[in-house]
Give the backbone structure.
Amino acid sequence: MQIALSSAAYAAETVLQEKIRPGEVKFLKFPGGATHPNFSCRDVRLPLQDAKDHYTVVVSESYFSKMEPFQCELKDDETVITKIDFTVEPKEFAHENLHVDSTRVELSEEIKKRVEAESALVKQIYSSPLDSLQFTEPFKAPLKSKITSPYGIKRNYNHGKKLGEHLGIDFRAAVGKKIPAANRGKVVLSQELYMSGNLVIIDHGLGIFTQYHHMSKRLVNVGDRVEKGQIVGLAGSTGRVSGPHLHWGANVQGNLVDGFDLINQSKIYFKKSK
Ligand SMILES: [Zn+2]
């Protein structure tokens, strides 16, 4: 005889509903008390901060979302404590046409190889985040200057078919302008790359990273602990750019997300935590 699963076991489990849009972030906080807490979304394990009385996790949705609902689970070993049903809501992104030197669009084989190797290096960095939040305050935009290109804008180069998506925020910044860190963290990359020029990447823990591109000078080294507001470099026009500016990127769980959403969601998280 087969024994049906006890419905009481399921009654103890909490089901939450959440909404997210492409390129967005969600901080989630749960009551603590599990022996071996673990968290996953779409069956992929994500870092979890165990503060004993509560747990914190950060979920993101890709810009290239398939717009399908997905589920996350907080478990104690294999026992589900909380299920979170995520609905993905649509978000519109603007379109622009850019005129650029065609050699900047079509890369030579040699440059292509370099770009691929550098992109693999950056991906590697994102795969091993610090497992606890490195900050105690919300994120802050590195600059207050005019946004010359927003997150998510779709780009056509020279009216051609080649499409690109701008998955960061461009701030107007003259060469030499001091660039502060958006939050506390640890420097995990400080290097000159072909596309990004002088790039600094900061690991803020739990899968959250911020990036500072095209700088004329880097002022921090790998392994440095940086405070929120600490100057990580000076603005410039290194890498594949048409003029000096700061391209500020935010990567959460491997997805390049909207930095302004990271700021807003971190504000909500710390407001609730008080
Ligand atoms: Zn940019």
Remarks:
- The radius of gyration is 20 Å.
- The chain has a mean pLDDT of 92.
- The longest helix spans residues 109-126.
- DSSP finds four helices and 22 strands in the chain.
